[in-house]
Structures are given as structure tokens and as C-alpha cells.
Amino acid sequence: MSITLSRINVSAYRVPVSSPVATSFGVMHNRPAVFVRVEDSDGTFGWGEIFANWPAAGAEHRARLLIEDMGDLLLGRSFDNTPDLFATLTRQTHIRALQCGEWGPFRQVIAGLDTAMTDLEARRTGQSVARFLAPDAQSSVPCYASGIAIAQADDQIALSRAAGFSAFKVKVGFDMARDTRLLAGLFQTLAQNETLCADANQAWSLAEAQSFVTTCADLPLGWLEEPLPADAAPGDWRDLADHSVIPLAGGENITGTDGFADAIGTGVFGVLQPDIAKWGGLSGCWTVAQAIREAGLRYCPHFLGGGIGLIASAHLLAAAGGDGLLEVDVNPNPLRDAFDPWRGAEDRGTFPIPDSPGLGITTLPEEIAPYVTYSAELHL
């Protein structure tokens, strides 16, 4: 049964924060999000989220890109299913993206639309997204605490532990000597059942990354994420993997099924982390997640944004199964927490997957309305 889109709504939000979120490549001074709603001619709807963390003006840009540059490809058009929408939009926007060189924004808008369409399709069947993708999907998934600044890790890990987490990921890539010293100290504070990972956010050259893994070789890090730029030479990634006893992780900045096939085939990564808001949405990343699992690698979806993307990532992980963990940014974010992703539970270490249709989202929370910076609608 084809899907004819009759209405599209998109809203960009931006929330000021008292403590900026720092990475090795830049600082987020507020928390943005872009939420999209699609509706078919029968009135069935679905929700998605578009990546908006970078650049600083990215949220409003992507929302307007959807409305002003892609609306003609969507409204009143019929699609067989979500993969058909994904493939059609990717093909039809190729020259537009080539003309302006903005491959990322177009991919991210398509990813958000893909998630919304998958939500719509699942809602039509009365199933949760997780069970729409895999009938044997898990009813909950384990989480890890992410976004932890290495300089504040003692306090942030303690707070995360109190919230129910037993796995943590700290951001490194600022000062090599300080980072490695602080990491070593953190392991002295962990319980036996706790895990610590590190994320360099593409900070280092090959020589610097090799220095880090040599210095930290005796530390039982769960993984080292993006120690090199995602587009570093394959030989550099291979050299680092050969040099490291720490599993390497990456994927949030890999795009395309071919890109992930290459990443899987190199044997470099122990953990792969596609981000549904940056490329692929639910349907594209579902294909990739299955390939990762079939290759015997660990699938841990990357996500750092609002509530819709987090909930969708949890459904995808529940469908994929395995020993993966759901990334949960522990920095304050009203655009996530307003959705009550844990449904009132105080324990954040496990994420519940309810059986309600689709992603279980009907309307946006009223409390985020004051933070809207752009909102638009297209309809027949």
C-alpha cells in the first residue's frame, strides 16, 4: 500500500545551557534539535529527528532546507515504502547537493524523513518500530552514559552511577598528558562491573593516536572512539588498529551502505556506531546494523540530540539485538528529557521499549514550545 504525503511539519529548537558541551573540535553553547512530522493522505503520521548539532546555525538551516528545497519532492508524492522514499530522495537531491556542496545537510534531512516514514509505517500496522523491524525485538536495551568531560569525570560519573549507569564514556583529545593521567585515575574509582570508554572526536594524527594507545595499553578501556579523522587514510586506520590493544570504534561520520561495508571489511573496528539522524534514518541504519551484527562486530548506535532521535535509536538497537549499548548523553537537555524517554523510571541504565504503535510519540511536549526558533508546514 503506497504512502502519499499530504502534510509535512518541521520545527527547529534551541535551548540555552549554563554549562557548554565541549569536544576536541568545538564547543556547543546551546542544545538544538529539529523535529519533523509527516502525514499521509489517510491521516496516519510519523515523527523523525534531523541532525542539528553542527554548525552553530545548523538547526534552522536544515529545517528550511526541508521546506524550501525539498518540499516539491515530497508533498503529494507517493512512495511504496520508506526505502523507496530514501532512495528516491537521495537520487533526486544529488545534483542539488552537488551544486552547493552540502552533502551532509541533504543526507541529514533525508535521514529525519526516513525515520518519520518508518514511524508512520509501523504506526499503520499497530506495532512498535522495534517489532515492525524485527518481530523478536528486545523489550529493553542497556544504556551507557556519554558526553562526560574528562576534566569533570569524577563528578559526572558519580552522578551517572547514581542514575543507574554502569558504563561510561569520557571525552578526550584536549591535552594528551592530562587526559591519560586522568583516565588512569578514573579506573581506580570504578567498580568491578563498570566499564569506561573514551571518545577523541577525531582529534589526533596517527602518531598522536599511537602515542595514546601505547600510554593507555594497560588500561581496560571498553573502546577508543574516533581517535583519527573519519576520512583518514585507510592505511592509517590499519596501522593504528595493529598498534592498539584497545578496540577501535567509529561510524557516526561514515555514510552510505558502501561506506559501512568498507568499514566492516577492513577489520579495523570492534565497535561500529551509525547515527540515524546523520545518515540513513531507521531504514538505512537498519540494513547497516544487520550487516554489523552478521560480521560479528558490536553495534552501538551513536546519538547526541533530542528525544525523538534517542527513542528511535533505542528501537533500532532493540530490533538489532546483540551486546550493543544505547548512547545517552548525560548533559542537561530539555529537548530530550521533555519526551520522558524512560517513562518515569529513575533508573537510566536500561531503556524500555513499549509496545505502543510506532515510536509511541503522538505530539511534541508542550514544555519545549518556548524554545522554538523556526516552524513551518506544507500541506495539500
From TrEMBL:
Q: Does the keyword Acetylation apply?
A: no
Keyword Nucleotidyltransferase: yes or no?
no
Superkingdom is Bacteria
Instruction: Tell me where in this chain the Mandelate racemase/muconate lactonizing enzyme C-terminal domain is found.
Output: 150-247
Alphabetical keyword list: Lyase
UniProt protein name: Mandelate racemase
Which organism is the protein's source?
Answer: Marivita lacus
Which lineage is the organism of this entry classified under, starting from the top rank? Answer: Bacteria, Pseudomonadati, Pseudomonadota, Alphaproteobacteria, Rhodobacterales
